[in-house]
Specification:
alpha+beta; 78 residues; 35% strand; 38% helix
Length: 78
């Protein structure tokens, strides 16, 4: 699975993509980002990075994915 990670660190917003073998592997990284107070949200895509990389931004936006965002964290860092 591919996770698109939204974070805020040192006054900069970041969007990264990373491939995980399973959900528990992702949850470890997620908790670390939450403890560091840099995580603001993520989207989970049920596909490989190879498949994900072939998609345009529009196709990614139209994909069915699970999105989780912490509105308060986003606003707090704004």
């Amino acid at each position: 699975m591919v996770i698109e990670i939204y974070s805020y660190e040192d006054g900069m917003r970041y969007v990264d993509q990373k491939e995980y073998k399973d959900y528990s592997e992702w949850e470890k990284d997620w908790m670390i980002m939450k403890f560091r107070d840099v995580w603001t949200g993520h989207k989970i895509y049920d596909m490989s990075m190879k498949e994900f990389s072939k998609l345009s931004q529009t196709q990614r936006n139209n994909m069915n994915c699970k999105a989780v965002f912490d509105r308060e964290a986003f606003i707090r860092k704004h």
